[in-house]
Amino acid sequence: MTSQTVGEVMTSEVVHADRRTPFKEVVRLLDDNRISGLPVVDHDDKVLGVISGTDLMREAARTGRAPGAVTAQDLMSTPAITVHPEQPVPDAARVMERHGIERLPVVDEEDRLIGIATRRDLLRVFVRTDDDIRRQVTDDVVAGELGLASEAVAVSVRDGVVTLDGRVELRSDIALALHLSWRVDGVIGVVNDLSYRVDDC
Questions:
Q1: What is the pLDDT of residue 64?
Q2: In terms of pTM, does the model score above 0.85?
Q3: Which whole number is the average pLDDT over 8-22?
Q4: Packing angle between helix 89-99 and helix 119-126, nearest 10 degrees?
Q5: Per residue, what are the HEC states of the chain?
Q6: Which residues have C-beta within 8 Å of that of residue 124, sequence separation ≥ 6?
Q7: pLDDT digits (tens, 9 = 90+) for 68-88
Q8: Average pLDDT over all residues of the chain
């Protein structure tokens, strides 16, 4: 049981520019597609940098008008912060938070652009109902990983906080149950009210 990956939530159709794309064309791309930023790629689709609306505003403020000779290469922020499709969504969210960015180009093993993951894409994973989370913890953790009858451990969820109450076979099963519950998408906390039959620690 693992968290969703970036590849499962990313957008595959990516609006992008190349290094020679003029300022006005970048503005048009953002406006027409109602997006706030885009990656800049080379002739081989490798990501060179990222342009945000903030980058455009900064350039316009510096010159006092829409710059005529400025291209995407002049505007982009480098190096681009990228992720791979197999990375877990929580890891990608932490990268976004650490760097204060709104979007992550997704690249393959050769660093070619294959998708884009926005803050909204990643946050959608965490917007799950308590019932969804409870069902997944019961099915995947209690019954699936621990091999217990679903009624052996009572799973309750409130606002993303999971409470586990019941008795497991081994003391080490408690640590495993807590660890696996934390990994379920949408879980923001785990409360342990478990007891055990056999102390194997």
A1: 65
A2: no
A3: 95
A4: 130
A5: CCCCEHHHHCECCCCCEECCCEHHHHHHHHHHHCCCEEEEECCCCEEEEEEEHHHHHHHHHHHCCCCCCCEHHHHCECCCCCECCCCEHHHHHHHHHHHCCCEEEEECCCCEEEEEEEHHHHHHHHCCCHHHHHHHHHHHHHHHHCCCCHHHEEEEEECCEEEEEEEEEEHHHHHHHHHHHHCCCCCCEEEEEEEEEECCC
A6: 9
A7: 788 999 999 999 999 999 998
A8: 90
Structure tokens at 37: 């930023």
Cβ within 8 Å of residue 184, ≥6 positions away? 1, 3, 133, 136, 137, 140, 141, 162
Task: Give the residue carrying structure tokens 């997944």.
Answer: 136
Q: CA 177, 132, 83 angle in degrees (round to 5)?
A: 75
